[in-house]
Design goal:
By secondary structure, the chain is α+β, with helices and mostly antiparallel strands. It has helices spanning about 30-40, 85-95, 115-120, 135-145, 195-200, and strands at about 10-20, 60, 70-80, 100-110, 120-130, 150-155, 160-165, 170-180, 180-190, 210-219.
C-alpha cells in the first residue's frame, strides 16, 4: 500500500458552537451537514477523513434540530489531521458560512472524549405562543402540569402512534414574557422532548410562533 492510500490519523478535535438563524431554519439536517462540509473544504481546514471505500469528513454533530427551529447553541465536533488554532478555524470558516450561520466559539476537546449526543442530557428553549387566554390562566396551567407526576401523550410519526409520558421529559417551564397576546415560555426539556408537543399538552391549539434553542446541558 502506498503512503497516499494510508488512512489519515486525527491529531486534533475542535468543538464549534454556532448559531442557526431565521435564514436557514427551514433547511434539513442533511443539508446543514453538507453546508458545513462545503464551508470547511473551501476554508482549507485540514479535516480528517474516515477509512473505507467512501471516506467521509470526520464531523460529529450535536442534537439535530427539527426544521423551523432556530438556535444559539448548536454544536459540531471536527477531527483534524493537522493541528490548528481555534482562532485560525474561526477566522477562516466564518468567511465561508452563509447568512444565518455564525461561529459563537471554538474550543479544543480531547480526541477520546465521548460524543456530543452521548453526553447531552437537557436542552433549553424559548417558545413563543399566541393565545387570548389571560396570563394568570396560563401560569396556572403550567403550574398544574408541573405538579402532575404523569401526563400520558400520543404522537403520530411515520404513520405510527407513539405513546409516552410527556411529563417525564419536562424539567421546568416558566412564563417568562408577554407582548400583547404573544407569551414566551422558557422550557428545560430532556433531550427527547419536543417543545411543540409540550405546548399542545398545555392546551395551546396553535403551533408555536417560534421555537429557539438557547442551551444544551451535559451530564
Amino acid at each position: 500500500m502506498t503512503k497516499s492510500l494510508l488512512p489519515k490519523v486525527s491529531r486534533q478535535r475542535l468543538r464549534i458552537k454556532y448559531t442557526r438563524g431565521q435564514e436557514i431554519k427551514y433547511i434539513s439536517h442533511l443539508d446543514l451537514m453538507r453546508l458545513w462540509e462545503r464551508a470547511l473544504r473551501r476554508a482549507s481546514i485540514p479535516v480528517a477523513y474516515s477509512e473505507g471505500f467512501n471516506p467521509r469528513p470526520r464531523l460529529s454533530f450535536g442534537l439535530p434540530l427539527a426544521v423551523g427551529i432556530t438556535s444559539d447553541a448548536e454544536l459540531l465536533d471536527i477531527f483534524l489531521e493537522q493541528r490548528i488554532s481555534p482562532y485560525h478555524l474561526t477566522v477562516n470558516i466564518s468567511k465561508q458560512l452563509p447568512s444565518g450561520v455564525s461561529v459563537a466559539g471554538v474550543q479544543e476537546i480531547g480526541l477520546k472524549v465521548a460524543s456530543l449526543q452521548s453526553q447531552a442530557t437537557l436542552a433549553e428553549y424559548t417558545v413563543v405562543v399566541n393565545t387570548d387566554k389571560p396570563r394568570e390562566q396560563i401560569q396556572s396551567t403550567v403550574q398544574d402540569f408541573l405538579k402532575r407526576k404523569h401526563v400520558n401523550w400520543q404522537h403520530k410519526r411515520d404513520g405510527k402512534i407513539k405513546e409516552y409520558d410527556i411529563r417525564e421529559v419536562v424539567e421546568d417551564i416558566q412564563v417568562s414574557g408577554q407582548h400583547d397576546n404573544d407569551y414566551t415560555l422558557s422550557m428545560r426539556l430532556k433531550i427527547s422532548g419536543r417543545p411543540e408537543q409540550v405546548t399542545t399538552a398545555l392546551g395551546f391549539t396553535s403551533h408555536p410562533k417560534s421555537i429557539h434553542r438557547t442551551n444544551i446541558i451535559f451530564n
